[in-house]
Amino acid sequence: MNLARRKRRQHPEPIIALIDVVFFLLVFSMLVGRMDATAPFRVMPASSESGATMPGGGETVAISQDGTLALNGREIGEEELLSALATVLTRMPDRLIRINAHRGAELRLYLPLVAEIEGLGAKDIVLVVTPEGP
Known about the structure:
Blueprint: H1 15-32, E1 59-63, E2 69-71, E3 74-76, H2 78-91, E4 96-101, H3 107-119, E5 124-128
Parallel strand pairs: 1-4, 4-5
Antiparallel strand pairs: 1-2, 2-3
């Protein structure tokens, strides 16, 4: 009688244990590591008010979608705008400057302008926004 030996069955690699180890390392690194760089000083993000009444008075700078500027309803060039605002801020340093930019206007059109207006000595600059509807 010839009895054939049964072939040894190969055991699969213990992949489940490897997955557990990798998952453990991932969780550990997420808990211990920083996900983003923190500033070496305290940073207070800007705040916005929704539904608050817009303060009256001040100067209104309008920026169209293509970057055309207007001051208090009159179209004006950038140099003339900055000159007019410098004159106003010299007389009234606490004067409110309101910037009303078209929703399609790119940030590159008005953020440098905001910096220049701040450089003129403006203390209050308000960016007028319209909240998204429901």
